[in-house]
Every structure is written in C-alpha cells, then in structure tokens.
Design a protein that fits this description.
By secondary structure, the protein is an alpha/beta fold. It has 13 helices and seven strands. The chain has one domain: 3-Layer(aba) Sandwich (Rossmann fold), CATH 3.40.50. The radius of gyration is 19 Å and the shape is globular.
C-alpha cells in the first residue's frame, strides 16, 4: 500500500509539473520556422513515433465508433479517406503529392496498398529524414523538405494532391489553397482532411470557447483554424477552376483518437520511461491539449472537415 501511494504521488506530481510546463511554456506560432522546429523536436525525441507509430494523425473508428486498435485505426483512416476522396480505384503509378507528410505513414500506405507514385513533403527536415529511414527501397515513395506555401514543383504536375492535418499550421489559408491546386493536373483530384473550428459567422464563440481555441492554437504552433465553410470558400476563390467540390465531417468518426492518444502512454509505460525523464514530462505536458481537443470536438467547437474536388480539364 505504501508503494502504491508513493507511485500515485509521483504520478500526480509529474502531471502537475507537466501542466505547469504546458501553461508557462506554450509553443506559439512565430512563422513557418516555429512549425518546423516543433516537429523537428517531436521527431528527434521519438515520443510521438514510439507511442503513436508511423501515422501522426487521427484514427478512423467508423460511425458509430467501433472499438479498435489505436494504430490500426490510423491506418484505416488512410484507406477510408482514399475511398471518400474517390482515389482508391485510380491505377498504379498515379502521381500523388502528400503535403504535410509527417514521418511518411500515409505516403507509404498509399504507395504500398494502391501502387501510387508518392512524393511526401514536410517543412520539418527531421521528419523528412526519418520518413526516408522508414521507407523500404522497393516502394515508389520519396520525401523532400518543402514549405506548403512555396512548393518547389511545376504547375499541373500531380494526379492527386493529398493533405491531412496540415492547414492549421499555415497562416495564409488562401495561399495554401492556391498552392495545392496549382500543382494539380487538369482532371486531377484534391483530397484534404483537417481540424476546423466551428463557423463563427453563424454563432459567435463564447468566452470559454475563445479561451479553448487560443490554447489549441498556442500549444501546438497553430496560427489559426479555418472553418469547413471558410476553407471551402478559399478553394472556390482560387484561380484554378474546380468541379465537384464537396465537403464532409468526420468529427464523430475520429473522436476516440484524442483519449486513445492519452491511453497509449498508460498502455506503454515502458516506452515512456525508456525515453527518459524529459520525454515523460513532455508526454505529460501534451495531456491538457489532448483533453481540450476532445472537449472541443465533442461539443462541436471543432470539427474534422473533409474536402474533395477535381480540377477542371479546360
């Protein structure tokens, strides 16, 4: 009993220290380099990869949500989005650009399952290097460091542009939409999925909601969130003509991901401890943001938006 109380006391102390770090040392967006730096650190300390696996994005649990393995749900997300985005039947060799590729989990899945020729890009050099290390030589999948607002690619070079959970890190939402569509071939398909705030043009945010949104921005280097409607407006305002533009909402289908992200630490205590005290504290400091994300998505303040469109052929 004495040992149990001591362990509980240490856990509570660690949580309080993590909460203090979370409050006093936010990760504010200070330009694109602050995003690159944050993801370089997350990659180099291996915390996200060791706990979440190769997919640094939410999982897909269906509707109503089904109980499933956390890492399997992340892989299922890629397949479900490929189906929703109507690219799962495209032929092998289709050229796909994965914007905000992380350490390459989605890129490798698209290459391995569908035979696509995938280029993954990230603003984080550490992510790109790790993605290369994790990718088998036989996969048609490569990675480069690029800024999503200045893609070092020619106009109309991609059959598919795919992006997941990237836009919240970008201040210029219209510029982001323009660049995604610029590199898309005529007849090519855009598939995007992202965290979006509720459209406040219909209902203003309360003071509590404004505080929560501020924390969700400053803790993970986000300058601002779009609403589903406002990012659709960005796509429509682009000079690239589109057809078949449609949106979806997977807030419920992805909702279990937030608490599952926390439980992974509890399920893998050896992983946490093996990375050292600093990684343990870093894991603890992420818990408040994950809890706020769950609250925001559960109550409709945040939504998981989907976007698909085809670039007109003429």
């Amino acid at each position: 009993m004495t040992l149990l109380l001591a362990l509980l006391g240490l856990a509570l102390l660690g949580l309080l220290i993590g909460l203090l770090i979370w409050y006093l040392l936010p990760r504010r967006f200070r330009g694109s380099q602050s995003v690159a730096s944050a993801y370089d650190q997350w990659t180099q300390d291996q915390l996200l990869e060791r706990l979440w696996g190769e997919h640094i994005h939410l999982g897909f649990y269906g509707q109503p949500p089904q109980q499933r393995d956390f890492r399997v749900a992340k892989q299922d997300f890629v397949d479900a989005l490929a189906c929703w985005g109507e690219i799962d039947q495209l032929p092998a060799g289709t050229k796909v650009l994965d914007v905000g590729c992380g350490i390459g989990g989605s890129s490798r899945r698209l290459a391995a399952r569908y035979g696509f020729d995938v280029l993954g890009v990230s603003i984080s050099p550490a992510q790109v290097e790790r993605a290369r290390q994790l990718t088998p030589a036989e996969l048609s999948c490569r990675f480069q460091t690029m800024d999503a607002l200045q893609l070092d690619l020619p106009d109309g070079c991609m059959d598919v542009v795919w992006t997941v959970e990237c836009a919240p890190h970008i201040a210029d939402k219209q510029g982001f939409a323009n660049e995604l569509l610029r590199v898309l071939k005529p007849g090519g398909q855009l598939v995007a999925a992202d965290w979006n705030q509720r459209d406040d043009r219909r209902r203003a945010f309360s003071s509590i909601e404004r505080w929560v949104l501020e924390q969700l921005r400053v803790q993970w280097a986000h300058p601002a969130f779009s609403s589903i409607a406002s990012f659709r407006d960005n796509l429509e305002a682009s000079s690239t003509p589109l057809e078949g533009l449609s949106t979806g909402d997977w807030s419920r289908e992805t909702l279990p991901s937030w608490w599952e992200s926390i439980w992974e630490g509890a399920r893998r205590p050896g992983t946490m401890l093996s990375l050292g005290p600093r990684a343990v504290l870093k894991g603890l400091r992420e818990i408040p943001t994950l809890v706020l994300m769950d609250w925001a998505f559960r109550g409709g303040l945040m939504q998981f938006g989907l976007f698909r469109a085809t670039r007109c052929r003429h």
